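This section describes the prediction task in plain terms. A model, or a person checking by hand, is given the sequence of a single protein chain and must write out its three-dimensional structure as a string of tokens. No templates, partner chains or ligands are provided. The sample shown here is typical of the held-out split.
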Amino acid sequence: MDTTSARVLSVNVGRERPIAAKGGTSGIDKRPVDGPVAVRAPGPKGVGGSGLAGDHVSDTANHGGDDQAVYAYAREDLDAWEARLHRALPGGTFGENLTTAGVDVTGAVIGEVWEVGTALLQVSCPRLPCVTFAVRMGEPRWLATFTAARVPGAYLRVLRAGEVRAGDAVRVRDVPAHGVSIGTAFAALTTRPDLLPLLRAVPQLPAGDRREARRRARRAGPAPDADPGPAARP
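The expected answer:
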């Protein structure tokens, strides 16, 4: 990460809107907002209530919660998708709360701590694409296309409440020694079962991802300990 230029380009929130061709509603249609946005920390019992003020989550069984309180995606990756898809992708198109610049989101280490505005955030897990995302994008075979690209963006949990706004610097305050990145975790949980053993050394990975890793490991069968090799930055 270039610490001299790492910053938030836009802060995006979504209100509840119908989701075409799927039925029901969703908050995935996130749009940039002006001025500061409050970032809520978990409630007194350590669960629920964290995230950006005004940001709606419809499917609370599969989205949101403390481990997925804030979603960040790099403008550089959106630019690459624009060139590939031949369409404009303004900040918030992928459902991200923070559209960043100068931040290697894919290379961020699980458990890495970011100071953004007056809030303190911790990288928790990669985004795994869902049907709502596919409907939102309207691209053929979008789930497979997005998965193959291995630039999933990062979910963050809130360690300290505060405020964020467009233009805020993104400052890395701590990086865990295990070194397992968002990109490596995403590959392990999707297309690279040989990398699953690496996730055992990541205590900051959410419980749901740990369960998914165990499920995939059982399905893949016994495997030798993985060597991250080039997959450390897929």
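For orientation: The chain has five helices and 13 strands.
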